[in-house]
């Protein structure tokens, strides 16, 4: 990549060295109606793993029965780390595995409680600096539905300790989530095979 692509447009007068700025935590949001929000987040997580970071993935909508390709890969990478020390540790959590949730049998109150419990667990991990890189996949939806308090999310992200990176995905990101983020990308759909009736395909959607 050309050097200019990695250089900032301007140097802030913040008293920090270049090395110190490179250690600052990043809050990222991938939103918009286009495909690729989670895929991009998992790509970033793979880079983090390669740098030896402890990675935590938390899926807020995916069913426990939905086996995405990234999950299988990251679990293998986690095992590789355990066996050889290469890369970083990996944890992957989703509906049906403890505290996470999805739209399933039960009342809206049940879903809201489970979503709040999931966020509370992430808050505990951020406070304890459990992971160095977090993917909160499809996290925008429980915020949109009012199941997780956006003001609490924004405050926790803004004040979290250490250098923990957090990447969140999902459509319709709340304006306060965008405001607290350092990096926001909107995926805009131009064309999609499903527009003409094609179904999801292995290797493309999962």
Automatic annotation (TrEMBL):
Keywords: Transferase. One of its GO terms (biological process) is cobalamin biosynthetic process. It comes from Corynebacterium argentoratense DSM 44202. Coiled coil: none annotated. One of its GO terms (molecular function) is corrinoid adenosyltransferase activity. This is Cobinamide adenolsyltransferase. CDD domains: CobA_ACA. InterPro entries: CblAdoTrfase_CobA, P-loop_NTPase. It comes from the Bacteria.
């Amino acid at each position: 990549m050309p050097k200019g692509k990695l250089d900032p447009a301007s140097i802030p007068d913040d008293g920090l060295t270049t090395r110190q700025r490179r250690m600052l935590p990043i809050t990222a949001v991938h939103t918009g109606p286009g495909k690729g929000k989670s895929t991009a987040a998992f790509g970033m997580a793979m880079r983090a793993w390669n740098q030896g970071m402890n990675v935590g993935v938390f899926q807020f909508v995916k069913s426990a029965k939905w086996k995405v390709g990234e999950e299988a890969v990251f679990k293998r990478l986690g095992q590789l780390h355990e066996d050889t020390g290469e890369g970083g540790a990996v944890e992957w959590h989703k509906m049906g595995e403890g505290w996470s949730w999805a739209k399933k049998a039960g009342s809206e109150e049940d879903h809201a409680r489970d979503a709040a419990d999931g966020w509370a667990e992430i808050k505990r991990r951020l406070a304890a600096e459990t992971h160095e890189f977090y993917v909160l996949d499809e996290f925008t939806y429980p915020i949109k539905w009012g199941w997780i308090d956006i003001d609490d999310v924004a405050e926790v992200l803004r004040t979290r300790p250490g250098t923990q990176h957090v990447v969140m995905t999902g459509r319709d990101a709340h304006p306060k989530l965008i405001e607290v983020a350092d990096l926001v990308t909107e995926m805009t759909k131009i064309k999609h095979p499903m527009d003409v009736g094609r179904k999801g395909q292995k290797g493309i959607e999962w």
